[in-house]
TrEMBL record:
<protein>
    <submittedName>
        <fullName>DUF3563 domain-containing protein</fullName>
    </submittedName>
</protein>
<dbReference type="InterPro" id="IPR021946">
    <property type="entry name" value="DUF3563"/>
</dbReference>
<dbReference type="Pfam" id="PF12086">
    <property type="entry name" value="DUF3563"/>
</dbReference>
């Protein structure tokens, strides 16, 4: 009964921080770019600084 509602709710939710970071890393084309992106993520590219 609630499965369609859960599916709908998941489709509308925003991606989590971990999902956004992983998607960003997965877009790299080679090892050098991957290392560069990993350093950016480690420096807090996706985190909000107050």
């Amino acid at each position: 009964m609630f499965k369609p509602l859960r599916t709908f709710a998941r489709a509308l939710r925003a991606p989590t921080l971990q999902e956004r970071e992983m998607a960003y890393l997965n877009e790299s084309h080679d090892a050098i770019e991957l290392e560069y992106r990993m350093r950016q993520v480690d420096r807090g590219l996706f985190r909000k600084v107050i």
